[in-house]
Specification:
The structure is a homodimer of 292-residue chains.
Chain A: E1 24-29, H1 37-51, E2 55-60, H2 61-64, H3 88-91, H4 102-112, H5 117-128, E3 131-137, H6 145-154, E4 182-188, H7 205-208, H8 210-218, E5 223-224, E6 228-230, H9 239-251
Parallel strand pairs in A: 1-2, 1-3, 3-4, 4-5, 4-6
Helix pairs in contact in A: 1-9
Chain lengths: 292, 292
């Protein structure tokens, strides 16, 4: 594990924190081979963010040996936290006698402070971050499993969604707990550029990634930037051009306009979570959730 | 692990194979708690498929302890197959001296027959299946990591996509290796029904799952059925109604019309993977890849 994979708290890590720190950025990435295009882009990106004065926190999931599988140990009862994960861990749960209820039990464990350290450590990075870069190779038109399981395990009810344990406030969209943070996807793919364009066979990228961009980032309150895609990734002739493109996007991380996903609680939606009849009348599909 | 989780080869498992077997169905599922709505639906579904005469193969990923993380051991060189996964495993790869190239190296290992047994076992189930049921709780508007990683690891180039090792034929869409197989998603979610409807805030389900339905199932040649969604899954008052709905869909598994995703090689698309100008002129987005 490189020094970049450790959490830089309190500015103790001089390597990763500039003297004139502007903001804190979490670089979350998932590729099994550091000597890859993804590995190179990661290095370039982290170095650049540091050079322009940001503090950089990192989670290099393969290097960390991250376990992406949400299991009952994530919802362990306080009395059981020091022991191995067993059925007994769920026995006393208010919501779920004798069985594991994913959302309720992980929420309870989060509130009780009994979730595994590997989860609270990631949550702490996210709390500190003003922006998150989520970098991955597009596998089967989605995130690699190791990355999907970061969201499955870290984005627990009471932390990322649900209701706020203290105030009872609904944590969603413009009321989401991560409001004010920005999210940028950087993804490489084998398909050629037009395949993910507006009429591309692989699916227009913003719609293809709707579950991540809108259902995860926007849902938790983040401002979502247009994803940066690197197509034809197996045939990159000019790495400099790709590098420049990445640097340009990182320079604009806190200034470029976010995708205009609609807020949920200002009249655009019905209580049944449907777009109100007066908005985009007669239209349907994921695109209607972006204001034009 | 229950008897259902073992591969029923050659009809030796009387429990899971009827006397008048019609077809073979793979039930692929991912939920950490058997005593859950998902667990109940799984039991009901498998029992019913058996009752109506199908052979049922199963992959209950949590029960199997499936490892969803694609690593270099999936692309190990023949000489290294008995040893642990190390960098050396990649050293002699034609495509990738000294580093792991995901697609090329897993393809090479597939052709050489050196992939881990846990992968070839799943591939064999899929080869035998006439239909696949993919059942999961919708987490962050996608598959749980353990399931996403089934596709990441099992759907290797030369088996599920790429070019056919023998004929050189492109394995994609109507030329896909799984042509003739049917795929049905069964998914539970906390959101209420309208949230995944045509104007629902969570995203119209067919568009939300485009990467799976089109980018994975249709891409590999399968006929894709309309997904069966069970919304408000935390507040099911009438399990019988849900059960009846599932049984109805299973009864129609081989007869209901598939989603009319467009074939790739019959003139609808350009060689650059764009929908040809004469098809849905002026339109864009994932929906244009379905013929109306």
């Amino acid at each position: 594990m490189s020094v970049l994979d450790s959490l830089t708290l309190g500015g103790n890590d001089g390597t990763m924190q500039g003297n004139d720190t502007l903001s804190t950025v979490l670089w979350l990435s998932a590729h099994p081979e550091p000597r890859s295009l993804n590995g190179s882009l990661r290095s370039v990106g982290i170095t650049h963010l540091h050079d322009i004065g940001h503090t950089v926190l990192t989670s290099d999931l393969y290097a960390m040996g991250w376990d992406p599988v949400l299991r009952s140990r994530d919802g362990a009862h306080p009395a059981q936290t020091d022991g191995p994960t067993t059925e007994a861990a769920d026995t006393d749960s208010v919501h779920s006698p004798n069985r594991f209820r994913v959302s309720a039990d992980t929420r309870s464990a989060h509130i009780a402070g009994t979730q595994p350290h590997e989860i609270t450590r990631e949550q702490e990075k996210l709390r500190r971050a003003d922006a998150v870069i989520v970098q991955f190779p597009l596998w089967w038109y989605g995130m690699p499993a190791i990355l999907k399981g970061w969201f499955d395990r870290v984005f627990v009810s009471g932390f990322a969604f649900g209701t706020d344990p203290a105030s009872g406030r609904r944590l969603r969209f413009e009321q989401g707990p991560f409001a004010g943070k920005r999210a940028l996807v950087v993804t490489t793919l084998g398909d050629r550029p037009l395949a993910i364009g507006p009429r591309g066979k692989s699916g227009e990228l913003r719609e293809l990634l709707f579950g991540l961009l809108h259902g995860t980032f926007a849902y938790t309150g983040m401002s979502v930037l247009e994803p940066l895609a690197v197509p034809s990734a197996d045939r990159i002739d000019d790495f400099d051009a790709v590098r420049d493109q990445l640097i340009e996007r990182l320079d604009a991380l806190f200034t470029e306009p976010a995708i205009a996903y609609r807020p949920q609680f200002t009249g655009d939606y019905t209580p049944e979570w449907e777009l109100a009849p007066h908005v985009c009348p007669g239209e349907h599909g994921v695109r209607i959730h972006t204001a034009s």
